[in-house]
Design a protein that fits this description.
Shape: globular
GO molecular function: cyclin-dependent protein serine/threonine kinase regulator activity
Number of strands: 0
Largest sheet: none
CATH superfamily of the largest domain: Cyclin-like
CATH topology of the largest domain: Cyclin A, domain 1
Domain Cyclin C-terminal: 154-281
Family: Belongs to the cyclin family.
GO biological process, one term: cell division
Protein name: Cyclin, C-terminal domain,Cyclin-like,Cyclin, N-terminal
Helix content: 55-70%
Structural class: mainly alpha
CATH architecture of the largest domain: Orthogonal Bundle
Length: 287
């Protein structure tokens, strides 16, 4: 007897609830709650003595690569980094424990939001077996203890559609999909950079939207006073939103220069460059 296999390997992801997206009470509660889980902006100088921004970047980049290879949901990575930054804001550690902490943060964030969480064995494999399952489970308990079991932090991805709805940009489906893709790239860049720790998730989401629309020349074409609208929606100062957007665009320009230098060097050496960069996540992205 012939069997017809109709199984799918795609993950089941909950759709955005339009009732919640349009409810101002939900959005206002999110704006109030986001401050609760904000890490200290200067913890690498005030709390940590053995860590540097570069060491943080190495581990966070590794966490991003794990999430990319495992095709995790987009909010798993920023949530894990939020755990890492909040832990480091309260508890000093040695640099040889930093990857173990990052691995633990990935484990907890995937348990909370991923429909199929990353397994302990898989994460140990990604560390080249430098940590044990006992270490990972012990640090999971330590992480939850330091965070006081407050793991339901909000990320910039959580605010994205709420802000787009209130900007009335969600009506044109193809356009808003492009904006969301660009914003996802920018949010990932912000999460990986230590200097964005001081910004609220809603500010990063709003600034990412502004950077995406600026790159697509939307505001200039439509004479759109974007920062005034973002200020009204999020309550953030226009100067703060503008500063965050400018820092995002500065990172974009830096990556563009690095990519050009790599391509020029590859042409000079007559060897192709296969290194994955931040802007190569989305080939249609204007960066």
């Amino acid at each position: 007897m012939d069997l017809l296999c109709c199984e799918s390997t795609s993950k089941s992801v909950a759709q955005k609830d339009p009732t919640l997206l349009h409810d101002d009470r939900v959005f206002n509660t999110m704006l109030q709650s986001e401050k609760r889980c904000l890490p200290a902006a200067d913890y690498l100088t005030t709390v940590q003595s053995d860590l540097t921004p570069n060491l943080r970047k190495i581990v966070v980049d590794w966490m991003w690569e794990v999430c990319e290879e495992q095709k995790c949901q987009e909010d798993i990575f920023p949530l894990a980094v939020n755990y890492l930054d909040r832990f480091l804001s309260k508890n000093p550690i040695q640099k040889n424990h930093l990857q173990l902490l990052g691995t633990t943060c990935l484990l907890v964030s995937s348990k909370l939001r991923e429909c199929e969480s990353l397994t302990v064995d898989l994460l140990i494999l990604y560390t080249d077996n430098t940590v044990s399952s006992e270490d990972l489970l012990m640090w999971e308990l330590l992480l939850l203890s330091i965070l006081k079991w407050d793991v339901s932090a909000l990320t910039a991805h959580d605010f994205l559609w709420y802000i787009l709805k209130r900007l009335n940009l969600d009506t044109v489906k193809p356009f808003v999909d492009i904006v969301v893709k660009h914003c996802g790239t920018f949010i990932g860049m912000c999460v990986r950079d230590y200097k964005f720790c001081s910004y609220l998730p809603s500010v990063i989401a709003g600034a990412s939207i502004a950077a995406a629309l600026n790159g697509l020349e939307y505001a200039a074409i439509h004479k759109y006073d974007l920062f005034t609208k973002l200020h009204v929606i999020t309550g953030a100062k226009k100067e703060t939103l503008k500063a965050c957007q400018e820092q995002i665009e500065a990172i974009v320009e830096s990556h563009k220069r690095q990519r050009k230098e790599q391509m020029d060097f590859a042409l000079y050496e007559e060897k192709p460059v296969y290194e994955k960069t931040v802007e190569s996540i989305d080939p249609k992205c204007w960066i």
